[in-house]
């Protein structure tokens, strides 16, 4: 058992409201942390919001409100969305928090005292979408930012610069000698190539050009670059302080995984690592870069009008709990690949896996147990751990843990569903209803017991994805809601367990397509 697990997500810009792209990342992260909590008592998840920078300043100005008002308004939208999706973070940090601002200044000062920050006059192309200067080589043939399709602004300023070039070789060595550092590994070459062409980076902006930010210590004419401010959240949130770091920081750092989108790997695997090296801190173990979610195969954008909030999807399908959406998002893409959301595939996937496969399996088995055995498990029904299903249950739980260790979240979900598939086939093949008809009651009882034990395994393995459905499964099995992996030993359902007819309920009701379509039209 690991003694601690520290996971962070990217912190979202609050110049807009949460959409399903943000939700995708927080769901993946939440699924990982819930899984880790099944294995260790000290698993900690940090999320937050990135509240400084020119984008927020401009959006607020357009709306005629202060940047802080805009941040407060949108922060509460993020908080609400994460509550709806049952994101179980331990802390949500805002970069406008006083403690964060204080420590970011300390960090800047320490980098300056180390000789890693110097002042320099510079002309560059700034993309406010990226909140970053762009290398002219990386622009599209029309001179646009490839990610935001916007022409970057030419900016000439005297700024503070960070000696990124000093750390170039050390970072390359670290990446090459730590195969688990960048996940998925297909991204490694891309980062090593970017590292080849790296230059020192500007880590401040003049106050005239960016007012909404943390002041450079002892130089009120400059604002700290928003990425230095933002990346530092991973340590300020858990009590880092250049003088006297907290016990929590000492326990949790280094971070086990930074969960981020593929668009911001450079900031995490190059900039952040150089800052940590300069601060003399340990480096994160893994940067897990997930792919992007499109809507009906198009990139989400305000101009296309296809930005969907997670709550809209739950409302559209009359879902009170987020389980189905969480499950779908987790399996929408295989590791690091892009995924797509469409109403149609959402409905198909969750109906097939959660209602038809897992839900029905439990339902019909419990009904048979009530019909043939008054819902009671007798000692002689209990099967030994060497049956094919029992062995497969144990192997599947190992596969799931293994997938999580490799951040193959969609693959972990697939392993659970494929196990449920096999158990369904086992029911069809053994036909307990025929065994009952032939009065082979002990054989019939053993089949039902085997399936219910398999269901118990499914509940535990499904828990990080669908916490409510997993809870309902255990509750119908009359088992207390303990989802720790150490409960997974064959034979956990003990004799005397009693299921009453009236307690049998579908754990997931099929999404009704007509209802959803009607609602959309209306
Ligand atoms: N504020 C920075 C991150 C700073 S981390 C120290 C930022 N914010 S963001 O709001 O633009 O994005 C937040 C996260 O959401 C990023 O990891 C980004 O990749 C992710 N996503 C934003 N849109 C997305 C999709 N359409 N699909 C999947 N993830 C997406 O970047």
CATH architecture of one domain: Orthogonal Bundle
Helix content: 40-55%
- Estimated radius of gyration: 26 Å
In CATH, what is the class of one domain? Mainly Alpha
Distance linking N and C termini: 52 Å
The named CATH superfamily of one domain: Isoleucyl-tRNA Synthetase, Domain 1
Question: What is the CATH T-level topology of one domain?
Answer: Isoleucyl-tRNA Synthetase, Domain 1
Strand content: 5-15%
| Shape field | elongated
Uncertain parts: none
- What's the main sheet like? 7 strands, parallel
Please count the beta strands (DSSP E, at least 2 residues each).
16
Mean pLDDT: 93
Structural class: alpha/beta
Tell me what the structure shows:
The chain has helices at residues 20-37, 54-63, 67-84, 98-113, 164-177, 188-196, 226-231, 233-236, 247-252, 265-279, 310-316, 323-331, 343-373, 388-405, 409-430, 432-437, 441-462, 467-476, 513-521, and strands at residues 5-9, 12-13, 43-50, 91-94, 117-127, 132-134, 153-162, 182-183, 201-202, 204-206, 215-216, 219-224, 257-261, 286-290, 293-295, 339-341. The protein is an alpha/beta fold and 522 residues long. It has a domain at 343-503: Isoleucyl-tRNA Synthetase, Domain 1. The strands form 4 sheets. Strands 1, 2, 3, 4, 8, 13 and 14 form a 7-stranded parallel sheet that branches. Strands 6-5-7-9 form a 4-stranded antiparallel sheet, covered by helices on one side. Helix 5 runs antiparallel to helix 6 and helix 13 (343-373) packs parallel to helix 15. The chain is elongated, with a radius of gyration of 26 Å. The chain starts with a strand and ends with a helix. The mean pLDDT is 93.
């Amino acid at each position: 058992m690991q003694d601690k697990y520290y996971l962070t997500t990217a912190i979202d810009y609050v110049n807009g409201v949460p959409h399903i792209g943000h939700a995708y990342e927080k769901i993946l992260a939440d699924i990982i942390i819930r899984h880790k909590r099944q294995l260790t008592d000290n698993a900690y998840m940090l999320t937050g919001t990135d509240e400084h920078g020119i984008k927020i300043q401009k959006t607020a100005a357009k709306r005629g409100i202060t940047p802080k008002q805009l941040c407060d308004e949108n922060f509460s939208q993020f908080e609400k969305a994460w509550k709806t999706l049952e994101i179980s973070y331990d802390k949500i940090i805002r970069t406008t928090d006083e403690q964060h601002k204080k420590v970011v200044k300390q960090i800047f000062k320490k980098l300056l005292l180390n000789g890693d920050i110097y002042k320099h006059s510079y002309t560059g192309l700034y993309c406010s979408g990226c909140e970053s200067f762009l290398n002219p080589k990386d622009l599209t043939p029309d001179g646009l930012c490839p990610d935001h399709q916007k022409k970057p602004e030419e900016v000439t300023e005297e700024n503070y610069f960070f000696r990124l070039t000093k750390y170039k070789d050390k970072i390359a060595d670290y990446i090459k000698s730590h195969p688990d550092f960048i996940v998925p590994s297909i991204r490694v070459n891309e980062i090593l190539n970017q590292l080849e062409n790296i230059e020192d980076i500007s880590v401040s902006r003049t106050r005239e050009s960016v007012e909404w930010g943390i002041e450079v210590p002892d130089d009120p004419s400059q604002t700290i670059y928003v990425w230095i401010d933002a990346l530092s959240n991973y340590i300020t949130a858990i009590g880092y302080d250049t003088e006297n770091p907290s016990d929590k920081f000492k326990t949790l750092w280094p971070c086990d995984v930074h969960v981020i989108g593929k668009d911001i790997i450079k900031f995490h695997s190059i900039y952040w690592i150089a800052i940590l090296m300069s601060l003399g801190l340990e480096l994160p173990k893994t940067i897990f870069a997930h792919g992007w979610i499109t809507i009906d195969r198009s990139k989400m954008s305000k101009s296309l009008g296809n930005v969907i909030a997670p709550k809209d999807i739950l409302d559209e399908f009359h879902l009170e709990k987020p389980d189905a959406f969480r499950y779908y998002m987790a399996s929408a893409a295989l590791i690091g690949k892009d995924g797509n959301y469409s109403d149609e595939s959402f409905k198909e996937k969750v109906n097939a896996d959660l209602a038809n496969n897992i839900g029905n399996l439990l339902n019909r088995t419990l009904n048979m147990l009530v019909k043939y055995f008054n819902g009671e498990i007798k000692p002689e029904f209990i099967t030994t751990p060497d049956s094919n299903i029992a062995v497969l249950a144990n192997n599947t739980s190992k596969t799931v843990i293994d997938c999580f260790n490799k951040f193959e979240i969609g693959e972990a979900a697939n392993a659970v569903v494929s196990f449920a598939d096999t158990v369904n086939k086992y029911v069809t093949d053994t036909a307990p209803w025929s065994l009952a008809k032939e009065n082979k009651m002990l054989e019939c009882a053993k089949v039902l017991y085997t399936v219910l034990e398999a269901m118990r395994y499914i509940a535990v393995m499904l828990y990080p994805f669908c916490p409510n459905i997993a809870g309902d499964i255990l509750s119908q099995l009359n088992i207390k809601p303990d989802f720790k992996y150490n409960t997974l030993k064959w034979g956990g359902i003990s004799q005397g367990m009693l299921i009453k007819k009236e307690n049998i309920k579908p754990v997931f009701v099929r999404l009704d397509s007509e209802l959803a379509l009607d609602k959309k039209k209306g």
